[in-house]
Design goal:
alpha+beta; 7-stranded antiparallel β-sheet; 41% strand; globular; Biotin_lipoyl; lipoyl; 2-oxoA_DH_lipoyl-BS; mitochondrion; transit peptide
Length: 159
């Protein structure tokens, strides 16, 4: 499993633990880690899953935006929509073509990138950062294992 360690926090305990001799002994810091896993679909979507909150950020890949050309319209799912892995959940239109967007994972749409309705070209400028499409609360995080790793996706794009 390809994973990226995103952040580590040291959370010291606020109160000292007293010992028999009444000296102050501090507890050890608690380590809190968040693992973020990014996977790809064969249809050129990606999802970046944060295990600390169960949310996956979804968008199209840089390869997809490059193939589409200048994006002129983005149709996004409504917040609260239940999606299943592989279901059509939106569309992207460009000067060259229109393309459906498929849900890389199952879950509930928690947020959509409203900026894309007025600035669809943001998908071309920043498809894997500011041009995210939606955030999905995953109902089955194990579906991430069915998706392509970055290396597998690169091989797929070269075919």
């Amino acid at each position: 499993m390809q994973a990226v360690l995103r952040r580590t926090h040291l959370l010291p305990r606020a109160f000292p633990r007293s010992s028999v001799q009444n000296s102050r002994i501090w507890d050890r810091p608690i380590l809190s880690r968040t693992i973020v896993t990014k996977r790809y679909t064969e249809e050129h979507e990606w999802v970046s899953f944060d295990d600390s909150n169960g949310i996956g950020i979804v968008s199209i890949t840089n390869h997809a935006q490059s193939a589409l050309g200048d994006v002129v319209f983005v149709e996004l799912p409504a917040v609260g929509t239940e999606v299943s892995q592989g279901d059509q959940m939106g569309a992207v239109e460009s000067v060259k073509a229109a393309s459906d967007i498929y849900a890389p994972v199952s879950g509930t749409v928690e947020a959509v990138n409203e900026i894309l309705s007025s600035e669809p070209g943001l998908l071309n400028k920043s498809p894997e950062d500011k041009g995210w499409l939606c955030k999905i609360k995953l109902s089955n995080p194990s579906e991430m294992e069915k998706l392509l790793t970055e290396e597998e996706y690169k091989v797929k794009c070269e075919e």
